[in-house]
Amino acid sequence: MGTYRNYIERIEEENKMNNNKKWLILAVSIVINLCIGFAYAWSVFSKPLQMDFGWTPSQASMAFTINLFVLPIAMIFAGPLVKRFGVRVVVLLGGVLFGLGLYLSGMITTVYQIYITYGLIAGSGIGLIYSITVSNTVKWFPEHKGLAGGLTAGGFGAGSLIFAPVAVQFIAAQGVLGAFQTLGLIFAGVILVLGIFIAAPPVPVTDNKATAAAISQSSGDVATRDMLKTPDFYVIWGLMVLGCISGLMIISQASPIGQVMVGLSPEQAAFAVGFIGLANATGRVVWGTVSDKIGRYNTLMCMFALSGAGLVALYFTKDLPLFMVGICLIAASYGGVFGLFPSITADNFGIKHLSMNYGVVMTGLSIGAFIGPQIAAYAVEQSGGSYNLAFIITLGINIAAIILVLFAKRMNAKHKMTLATEN
Fold it and tell me: Of 16, 185, 265, 316, which is most buried with the most CB atoms under 10 A?
């Protein structure tokens, strides 16, 4: 009896320690993501680089495009690395790559070198870190996956909002290359210090292999290769693509849209665009939290509906307030994608393989990053400068996404009914 009581007391003490630890890991993960979210402040560096090296805007923006494209690919590789080295080592490796990429960006002489340093190296570091911080915190908070994923992803979304003004000061004091080097050293140092506190949640221990397999099966854990064989994955991946299109179109074109549709000056447009980062970060936290209350798919429908409302607002906008409402609704809904899809992936395929599974789902970001800006460019070319056609096309995409969500919701309900029958 005494032995049993001691066992219970030990379990309760471990649970108390783990409860304290998970909040520390969440806080550390948010701060680390604030650091790598600095990458979204690329526009701060773009014009100084164009002036110093004579690059065209398209040449300069390609570095950011490569960075964004590499991110989900690195997330896929994070899964196998975690299995071999653990979450802490992968985060520290990501911190080294991110800081090194920025530092080497301060030593470039050609545009192709910045594609390698900022695009490939720094982008790989971001992908490794983002994959682990989001998936790992979701594992620590199984009862509040939406909140944990939203807060962690929110840190990434808010990074540019916080650090862009800092970067401007460094550029003014040291020049654009000096700023890259200084910020690279700072961010690497912060991530390497905080990354030490990252740890995976404890797993149930059993000496019985059959029992362990049963636990894994009952928890719904699905390996990546098996996930790719399910129709659920392709529906979720499709929703990821559709969820990114409108947001990335607005993020890439908000300033010219404001100037063309509302007649804003470049300075006024830049001020308005600053709110996109705030709306993006807020959406990641709010929508992730809401999904814990009303369900993932109901939340997705609300997000796509509000994004559509934002597009309608932009179509009819004639003044700054309606323009602000439109871009903020779209940006908040886009941010919600990254607060919500870690939880959707975990709900459907379990948490054991979440790092790699979510990395594969995130490849939809690369597709959306290509389609969104292309829709805007097509609309401008076809209409002689107006973006209204782009708003109509993306509104149609949002409507299609709502229909796909209804299909996914029905499919998920059938899947749960089947599992209940089998059990």
Answer: 185
